[in-house]
Amino acid sequence: MAEFNLVDGPWIPCISPDGNISEYSIRDVLLQSHNLGEICDDSPLVTVAIHRLLLAILYRAFEGPSTIEQWKSVYQTGAFTSHPKLEEYLSKWHDSFYLFHDTRPFMQVAGLDLNKYKDKHILKYDGSDRLMRLAREAPDKKGRILFDHRFNTGHMEYKPNQIAKMILAAQSFSGTGVASAGKIYGQTIKPTPCQFANCVNGLVVWIQGKILFETLLLNLIPRTYILGDKPAWEDNSIIENATQSWKTPIRFTGPIQQFAPLSRFIRIIDYQSMFFTNGLKTVDNSDDPMKAYFRESIV
């Protein structure tokens, strides 16, 4: 089964220069970024996560920019439509951006073993959860509310465009907890403490341009491209590294992995439920391009 491709399907909310709000696909939001004002979702966490995803795609498509000269060559064109590398990248990895896919669902892990949890009539099984759990602002299981006044009872149905945004926000902003038990590619998952996702600590900042194209380029900081810095939708070894990191935390390879982390193993079951457990554990890092740091003086 392959359903709802994020490259083609509208899900990214953007404000046009005339103030209208519409949803765009990944391809359209990038190729039309010179005609769009900004990305703006009801959830600030989603807004942050979408910016980081688009920057990860741009870094990967351009394999840089590595120098200010390469950056200028992109910026001076005023639009991404002049750069075939971007369309080539989206076409090459198109099948990895399906929200529902039997072998490679976007920012999820197909190898999670759900068979022993499935029920033909109701989805109340150990290790599963309501999709609302992905939204950090939503009420918890005990019904405690802060910004969101939905009741966390029953199984709400969500649309694919909503689920895509919830997954991204969860991968960057999930908090602590105990991982669910189960299996991944035959390997038993033992309940272990989950780590904060990499955007929880610190303050995420970015430079805002007059149009979305400017915003993306102003935050696409020239960096030396690291060959092994690949997102989860390209590299299955990230999942293997994640299971190893439960014992010994590892370091992000580069900004692409930081911007599109697999901090939780997620498998969407349907429009109501999912399987959710521990993901990549990393050591503290001080090299996130969208965070500000201060250096302690050494006496």
Describe this structure in words.
With 299 residues, this protein is of the alpha+beta class. The chain has helices at 26-31, 44-62, 68-75, 84-92, 160-173, 212-218, 237-245, 255-259; strands spanning 2-5, 12-15, 21-24, 38-39, 98-101, 112-113, 128-130, 177-178, 182-184, 187-189, 193-194, 264-268, 273-278. A 3-stranded antiparallel sheet has the order 3-2-4. Strands 6-9-10 form a 3-stranded antiparallel sheet, with no helix packed on it. It has a 3-stranded antiparallel sheet with strand order 7-13-12, covered by helices on one side. Helix 2 (44-62) crosses helix 5 (160-173). Mean pLDDT is 83; it is low at 117-128.
Approximate shape? globular
Report helical residue fraction.
Answer: 25-40%
Radius of gyration: 19 Å
Helix segment count? 8
Features:
8 helices, 299 residues, alpha+beta
Mind sketching the topology for me?
Layout: E1 2-5, E2 12-15, E3 21-24, H1 26-31, E4 38-39, H2 44-62, H3 68-75, H4 84-92, E5 98-101, E6 112-113, E7 128-130, H5 160-173, E8 177-178, E9 182-184, E10 187-189, E11 193-194, H6 212-218, H7 237-245, H8 255-259, E12 264-268, E13 273-278
Antiparallel strand pairs: 1-5, 2-3, 2-4, 6-9, 7-13, 8-11, 9-10, 12-13
Helix pairs in contact: 2-4, 2-5
